[in-house]
Amino acid sequence: MIEFKKVRKVYPNGTVGLDNINLTIHPGEFVIIVGLSGAGKSTLLRSINRLHEISEGEILIDGKSITAAKGAGLRRMRRDIGMIFQNFNLVKRVSVLRNVLSGRVGYHSTLRTLLGLWPKKDVEIALEALSRVNIREKAYARADELSGGQQQRVSIARALAQEAKIILADEPVASLDPLTTRQVMDDLKRINQELGITTIVNLHFLDLAREYGTRIIGLRAGKLVFDGPVEEATDDVFSEIYGRKIKKDELLGDVEEA
Amino acid sequence: MAAETKQIKTPSKLRFTIIFLVMAVLYVFSWRGVEADIGSLIEGWPYIRDLITGMWPPNWKYFERILDPMLETLRIAIIATTFGAILSIPFTLLASRNVFPNTWVTNSARSFLNFVRTIPDLLLAGIFVALLGIGPVAGVAAMTVFTFGIITKLAYESVETIDPGPLESMTAVGANKWQFIAFAVVPQALPAFVAYVLYAFEICVRAAAILGLVGAGGIGIMLSETLETFQYQKMATIVLFTLVIVIVIDSISSRIREKLL
């Protein structure tokens, strides 16, 4: 369970990134955060694992404050939170397997990970994670030999190998074409359903939000302006979140399955 | 329309003029200071001619004598570059702002590096000869500090240009500083680092060739000996041999560097 309590974020230049956010996300939910760029979607997501610091308030994960966590305690909490980025954030020059295994550094001693002495079980976990996103055969390829969609699946596998309880996905499909977009979203949804991992995704395609989410959160200028089940998120609601009519490019549109 | 054209300012020529004037003053100042005089170059021509004709033909038999000192120079360069490279790793990381966001750490590391790099190589050699005595050990010590300065400077600047994405994802998975460095920094920075070590080795061979002038071992001692005793033919052999060695090393290492980057 993730709880936001009176969370406020003010950037050094005075811009308010998050304004009095109170929010509870339950285990197993598939939450999609929508809003214009600059509305605070990314700030909200990154404040959960403290890639961004908040100015006021507190964020609790399973009852423990990550806001107050320090050093090893913070790292231990981050270990349980997987993150997927718009630009995949893989090390391009090394193998897919090593990228996936890097998700497991929090489980072992520094020396062991530095020397690359992964227990057999960890390699199995990593390969299993790759199987789950259907790219096990690419385990020994260099990460930059893979297409964008495949690289994003590697980063999903990294979060799986991490045995995360929560997955945060920050615009995971923004640099993908429509077909691979669906494959990646399908993977995230399947993992959410099969493993019960709480998943929070930032998206700017509204039809995707409706198709995949179970709960929609709307942000506008750092304020929470909508929070409800996907059924309640009508076109009018989206217009409200955006403060204007929905444009065509905010919809992914239909894609013929290959 | 009139208002629009007013807003677009023509770039000022003042800056260019000032830079030009400063450069001109600097040149005149330097010229005067060293009393450079084309006339003396012409007057000195007979001596230059004597030197060049005296060097020809090079004394090929002397080659045997200089082979060992030349090998010593190369050994000094190899050992010193290796030590310098190893020493530079921690300092490269400490000086990189994307690895250590704490400016106190990076600024102290950089101040130290700036200090090290201000010491000329021959002065370093002189200091170590005084400390460790005449011989190649002093040369190795001096060249270690010298290559350390070069490699660290180039390496931390390239570490700061690596893709921040993997750094972010390693933070997100809960990696500690060592793991962060090993999994996100090293694989991205390694090719450039190896290239800079090779580049430093090239410079080191050239610098090590003159170390003997202050008694720090290698071919340099033969060079100063032959020069002082007017044995120009022998000196020519040394100069040509050094030239060949440097060209061979440069071409091999630049070819490897091209492949790495």
Automatic annotation (TrEMBL), chain A:
Annotated CDD domains: ABC_PhnC_transporter
Species whose genome carries this gene: Tumebacillus lacus
Protein name per Swiss-Prot or TrEMBL: Phosphonate ABC transporter ATP-binding protein
UniProt xrefs under Gene3D superfamilies: P-loop containing nucleotide triphosphate hydrolases (3.40.50.300)
GO MF entries: ATP binding
Cross-referenced InterPro entries: AAA+_ATPase, ABC_transporter-like_ATP-bd, ABC_transporter-like_CS, ABC_transpr_PhnC, MetN_ABC_transporter-like, P-loop_NTPase
Alphabetically ordered keywords of this record: ATP-binding, Cell membrane, Membrane, Nucleotide-binding, Phosphonate transport, Translocase, Transport
Gene name of the record: phnC
All residue ranges annotated as the ABC transporter domain in the record: 2-246
Pfam families membership: ABC_tran
Keyword Isomerase among UniProt keywords: no
From TrEMBL, chain B:
Domain ABC transmembrane type-1: residue ranges: 70-253
Keyword Transmembrane helix: yes
Protein's membrane topology: Multi-pass membrane protein
Statement: the UniProt record of this protein carries the keyword Transmembrane helix: yes
Localization of this protein: Cell membrane
Chain ranges passing through the membrane: 12-31, 76-100, 121-151, 178-198, 205-223, 235-253
CDD domains: TM_PBP2
InterPro entries: MetI-like (IPR000515), MetI-like_sf (IPR035906), PhnE/PtxC (IPR005769)
Gene3D superfamilies from the UniProt entry: MetI-like (1.10.3720.10)
Keywords attached to this entry: Cell membrane, Membrane, Transmembrane, Transmembrane helix, Transport
Any Pfam family the entry gives: BPD_transp_1
Family of the protein in this entry: Belongs to the binding-protein-dependent transport system permease family.
Protein name (Swiss-Prot/TrEMBL): Phosphonate ABC transporter, permease protein PhnE
Organism name: Tumebacillus lacus
Classification lineage: Bacteria, Bacillati, Bacillota, Bacilli, Bacillales
